[in-house]
Amino acid sequence: MAALYVGTSGFSYRTWRGVFYPRSLRSSEWLTYYATHLGTVEVNTTFYRTPADETIDRWVSAVPPEFRFAVKAHRRITHNRRMPNLEDAIATMAALASAYAQRLLARVQTSFRAASSAAL
Known about the structure:
This protein has a single domain (7-110), classed as Protein of unknown function UPF0759 (TIM Barrel, Alpha-Beta Barrel), CATH 3.20.20.410. The two termini are 30 Å apart. By secondary structure, the protein is α/β, with parallel strands linked by helices. Helix 2 links the parallel strand 2 (40-43) and strand 3. A four-stranded parallel β-sheet has the order 1-2-3-4, covered by helices on one side. 28% of the residues lie in helices and 12% in strands.
């Protein structure tokens, strides 16, 4: 039987302090706390930039082994397909996803239609 993972899009929102995160919890401890309540998180930052290796290592070490990351594909891949070196961007995202994520999430433009799926 397949597992169901419940999570949110991102985890580091200051507005969650005192609502989801205890006020006394340092922001550096938020992901660990989050992972005690939810089993997955969508990593939004990868849509804009590739996180440093140290950041990825810190995220992975902050959660239990069964926790799942969903990495959002970079916008160069999903929104600017005509850019030069697109293959390099795809290779970077694939390496990032294989390094620590079990899923790669591709966010597409609202104008994207199923008939355009070959474009991916």
